Automatic annotation (TrEMBL):
Pfam families: DUF2007. It comes from Pseudomonas moorei. This is Putative signal transducing protein. InterPro entries: DUF2007.
């Protein structure tokens, strides 16, 4: 297994884990159970997405494409221009 990405928070990690699963890649969110114990202190590098060695390159490409994605023009609500609402 290779650790391929460090999400900023648990929500991003779970979102990316689901996205990879939809592409047939089984990803493990390492450190998920430790997040609650961190309290108010900022702890970096605690979370990580890990995949099998043979799927690591494809998973990195998918995450890179996800991070580079921009909202389609006209998809923003009128009250929050420039903000993507998921």
């Amino acid at each position: 297994m290779q650790r391929i990405y460090e999400p900023e928070n648990l929500m991003e990690g779970e979102l990316l884990q689901s996205m990879l699963a939809s592409e047939g890649i089984e990803a493990h969110l390492v450190g998920r159970d430790l997040v609650g114990g961190s309290g108010e202190l900022p702890i970096f590098g605690l979370l990580g997405l890990a995949v099998e060695n043979d799927q690591a390159q494809y998973a990195r490409e998918l995450i890179t494409a996800y991070n580079a994605a921009l909202p389609l023009s006209g998809d923003e609500p009128e009250s929050f221009p420039g903000t993507l609402v998921c």
